[in-house]
Design a protein that fits this description.
mainly alpha, 3 helices, single chain
Length: 129
Protein backbone atom coordinates (compact mmCIF):
# COMPACT_ATOMS: atom_id res chain seq x y z
CA UNK A 1 0.00 0.00 0.00
CA UNK A 2 2.91 2.37 0.66
CA UNK A 3 3.66 2.61 -3.06
CA UNK A 4 0.10 3.86 -3.64
CA UNK A 5 0.74 6.73 -1.22
CA UNK A 6 3.86 8.20 -2.81
CA UNK A 7 1.71 10.91 -4.41
CA UNK A 8 0.33 11.87 -0.99
CA UNK A 9 3.84 12.08 0.46
CA UNK A 10 4.96 14.26 -2.46
CA UNK A 11 1.97 16.58 -2.20
CA UNK A 12 2.55 16.99 1.56
CA UNK A 13 6.17 17.88 0.89
CA UNK A 14 5.17 20.37 -1.81
CA UNK A 15 2.68 21.98 0.56
CA UNK A 16 5.29 22.22 3.32
CA UNK A 17 7.69 23.77 0.77
CA UNK A 18 5.08 26.41 -0.07
CA UNK A 19 4.60 27.12 3.62
CA UNK A 20 8.35 27.56 4.04
CA UNK A 21 8.46 29.83 1.00
CA UNK A 22 5.72 32.01 2.51
CA UNK A 23 7.43 32.15 5.88
CA UNK A 24 10.68 33.18 4.18
CA UNK A 25 8.85 35.84 2.17
CA UNK A 26 7.66 37.49 5.37
CA UNK A 27 11.15 37.35 6.86
CA UNK A 28 13.10 38.55 3.83
CA UNK A 29 10.80 40.75 1.72
CA UNK A 30 9.57 44.21 2.57
CA UNK A 31 6.25 43.62 0.80
CA UNK A 32 5.60 39.95 0.02
CA UNK A 33 3.30 39.32 -2.95
CA UNK A 34 0.44 37.66 -1.09
CA UNK A 35 -1.69 37.23 -4.19
CA UNK A 36 0.83 35.14 -6.13
CA UNK A 37 1.80 33.19 -3.00
CA UNK A 38 -1.85 32.35 -2.37
CA UNK A 39 -2.39 31.40 -6.03
CA UNK A 40 0.57 29.02 -5.89
CA UNK A 41 -0.58 27.65 -2.55
CA UNK A 42 -4.12 27.00 -3.84
CA UNK A 43 -2.85 24.76 -6.63
CA UNK A 44 -0.68 22.72 -4.28
CA UNK A 45 -3.53 22.52 -1.76
CA UNK A 46 -5.89 21.14 -4.43
CA UNK A 47 -3.34 18.41 -5.20
CA UNK A 48 -2.96 17.62 -1.49
CA UNK A 49 -6.72 17.43 -1.04
CA UNK A 50 -7.08 15.05 -3.99
CA UNK A 51 -4.37 12.79 -2.61
CA UNK A 52 -5.94 12.85 0.86
CA UNK A 53 -9.28 11.87 -0.67
CA UNK A 54 -7.52 9.01 -2.45
CA UNK A 55 -5.88 7.97 0.83
CA UNK A 56 -9.26 8.07 2.55
CA UNK A 57 -10.71 5.73 -0.06
CA UNK A 58 -7.79 3.31 0.20
CA UNK A 59 -7.75 3.28 3.99
CA UNK A 60 -11.49 2.64 4.04
CA UNK A 61 -10.93 -0.72 2.34
CA UNK A 62 -7.48 -1.53 3.75
CA UNK A 63 -7.33 -0.08 7.30
CA UNK A 64 -3.79 0.51 8.56
CA UNK A 65 -3.61 2.33 11.90
CA UNK A 66 0.12 2.94 11.58
CA UNK A 67 -0.40 4.83 8.32
CA UNK A 68 -3.41 6.68 9.66
CA UNK A 69 -1.43 7.90 12.67
CA UNK A 70 1.53 8.80 10.44
CA UNK A 71 -0.58 10.99 8.15
CA UNK A 72 -2.56 12.48 11.03
CA UNK A 73 0.72 13.60 12.59
CA UNK A 74 1.97 15.12 9.33
CA UNK A 75 -1.36 16.89 8.75
CA UNK A 76 -1.30 18.26 12.28
CA UNK A 77 2.14 19.77 11.60
CA UNK A 78 0.90 21.30 8.34
CA UNK A 79 -2.16 22.75 10.07
CA UNK A 80 -0.06 24.23 12.89
CA UNK A 81 2.21 25.91 10.35
CA UNK A 82 -0.86 27.20 8.49
CA UNK A 83 -2.11 28.72 11.73
CA UNK A 84 1.23 30.49 12.27
CA UNK A 85 1.09 31.76 8.68
CA UNK A 86 -2.46 32.99 9.18
CA UNK A 87 -1.35 34.95 12.24
CA UNK A 88 1.61 36.41 10.32
CA UNK A 89 -0.63 37.43 7.40
CA UNK A 90 -3.05 39.12 9.79
CA UNK A 91 -0.14 40.94 11.45
CA UNK A 92 1.20 42.01 8.04
CA UNK A 93 -2.22 43.34 6.95
CA UNK A 94 -2.55 45.28 10.21
CA UNK A 95 0.93 46.77 9.69
CA UNK A 96 -0.07 47.83 6.16
CA UNK A 97 -3.28 49.43 7.44
CA UNK A 98 -1.33 51.34 10.06
CA UNK A 99 1.22 52.47 7.49
CA UNK A 100 -1.55 53.67 5.19
CA UNK A 101 -3.19 55.54 8.07
CA UNK A 102 0.13 57.16 9.00
CA UNK A 103 0.71 58.13 5.36
CA UNK A 104 -2.75 59.66 5.18
CA UNK A 105 -2.11 61.70 8.34
CA UNK A 106 1.21 62.90 6.94
CA UNK A 107 -0.45 64.02 3.70
CA UNK A 108 -3.13 65.88 5.64
CA UNK A 109 -0.51 67.59 7.79
CA UNK A 110 1.56 68.46 4.73
CA UNK A 111 -1.43 70.05 3.00
CA UNK A 112 -2.17 72.02 6.15
CA UNK A 113 1.41 73.31 6.27
CA UNK A 114 1.31 74.09 2.57
CA UNK A 115 -1.80 76.24 3.01
CA UNK A 116 -0.21 77.99 5.98
CA UNK A 117 2.95 78.57 3.99
CA UNK A 118 0.95 80.16 1.20
CA UNK A 119 -0.66 82.68 3.54
CA UNK A 120 2.61 83.64 5.26
CA UNK A 121 4.62 84.02 2.09
CA UNK A 122 6.56 80.76 2.48
CA UNK A 123 6.71 78.73 -0.70
CA UNK A 124 8.17 75.39 0.44
CA UNK A 125 7.84 73.32 3.54
CA UNK A 126 10.08 70.30 4.02
CA UNK A 127 8.97 67.55 6.36
CA UNK A 128 11.56 65.00 7.39
CA UNK A 129 11.42 61.91 9.48
Amino acid sequence: MKSKLNALDRSMEKYKDIQEKQINAFETELMPDLESLNFERAAVFADLKNNLDHFSNIIHYEPDMELIIHYQTRLKEIMETDERLKERITQYKNELKQHMLDTSKTKTAFHGYKKSAGSSGLKWVYITG
